[in-house]
Amino acid sequence: MKEVKVETKLSVIESIEELTSAEKELMLKAIQAREKAYAPYSRFQVGAAILLDNGLVLEGSNQENAAYPSGLCAERVVIFYAGANHPSNKIEKLFISASPMDRELETPIPPCGACRQSIAEYEVKQDQSIEIYFMGTKGQIYKSDSLKNLLPFMFDKGSL
Predict the structure, then answer these.
(1) Is 75 a catalytic residue?
(2) pLDDT digits over 19-77, tens only?
(3) Which runs of E-coded beta strand occur in the chain?
(4) Is residue 123 within 8 Å of 115, Cβ to Cβ?
(5) Active-site residue, from 23, 59, 75, 123
């Protein structure tokens, strides 16, 4: 039997204060979006902000539904909005902040599997990596230069 070794590389940023001013502004947009989340069932709020190649910043938050599968994560809300309304623009950066409503979370929360697959679709479609920054409520921020670090065995159009 042969083994395959998979390595991933993430940068660790100690706090929001260590981001550039432009990156800090984008993370603050994600935090503001998180505060607008509709999460009455999970009580777990997620906000996302993306930067398009034309300089436009878009925001999204998770939107739940009593029929659980009908809800949508913040990352997919904002990415699908960008795809529907700005189809010719590339997504350069994605910022995510996530936390339960009842406490502050210092652990960086990455996109879920379904969101990773959706981000992968846009990376492949635009033939350009998307930088992904994610955090809890406060504390460290993890940065990935591409979705490929979070989903090394991507399923994309090349798999069909």
Answers:
(1) yes
(2) 999 999 999 999 999 999 999 999 999 999 999 999 999 999 999 999 988 999 999 99
(3) 11-13, 44-52, 57-61, 91-100, 131-135, 141-144
(4) no
(5) 75
- What does the alpha-carbon distance between residue 26 and residue 100 come to, in Å, rounded to a whole number? 21
Cβ atoms < 10 Å from Cβ of 16: 18
Q: Which residues 6+ apart lie within 8 Å of 147 measured at CB?
A: 116, 119, 120, 123, 129, 130, 132, 154
Q: Any residues with CB less than 8 A from the CB of 23 and at least 6 apart, and which?
A: 93, 95, 133
Between 157 and 122, the more confident residue is: 122
Identity of residue 79: I
Which two tokens mark 17?
């204060």
Query: Look-up: residue for tokens 């309304």?
Result: 85
Would you tell me how many other CB atoms lie within 10 Å of the CB of residue 36?
A: 14
**What token pair was written down for 145?**
């230069």
d(CA 132, CA 148): 11
pLDDT digits (tens, 9 = 90+) for 122-143: 999 999 999 999 999 999 999 9
User: What is the reported pTM?
Assistant: 0.95
- Looking at residue 69, its pLDDT comes to 87
Angle at 20 between CA 11 and CA 97, to 5 degrees: 60
pLDDT at 15 over 90: yes
